Amino acid sequence: MTISPWKLIKSKKQSSYKVFDLRIDTAQSPRTEKSYDFYILETGPWVNIIPITKENNVVFVKQFRHGIRDFTLEIPGGMVEKNDTPRGAALRELEEETGYSSNKIEFLGKVHPNPAILNNYCYTYLARDVEKNGSQHLDEREDIEVVLIPLSEVFSLIKKGKITHSLVICAFSFFILENPSLLKL
What percentage of residues in the chain have a pLDDT greater than 70? Predict the structure, then answer.
């Protein structure tokens, strides 16, 4: 069976918030011809970056996440601001959240974080030979602890459920695709 796109009947911005807008789309099924409402969070692109030191430690950030009311272990990341490129935003987030920087940056890939309800991409970068060159520059809503973890332990932490943020796991999936020999770690 070949499926077809749903026909958009109407689209209306419902509400606007600082980091996203709520849009309601009414669309018609090509199979049943019935119409349904779908709630979409419109938001700008996101970035994350895997920072690795010369000693092969990954610079992680530990922070409290209100959605789960618990701490997560993540790589630096955030939103691409209006005058930013994804690459520029990744470098900015790395420096702001950790105080680390690097000149060896490469693009690893991009994903739709949740295409059922979100309209954006998350771009993933790798920073090699990162060095601590300053202090954190956190905004008022951020409390972030920097944690160095040997690269050789990261995949075990994912497997054990110590790293649960899906975009972080996606980032390391891209990393493995570029570095398949690390699967033996």
Answer: 98
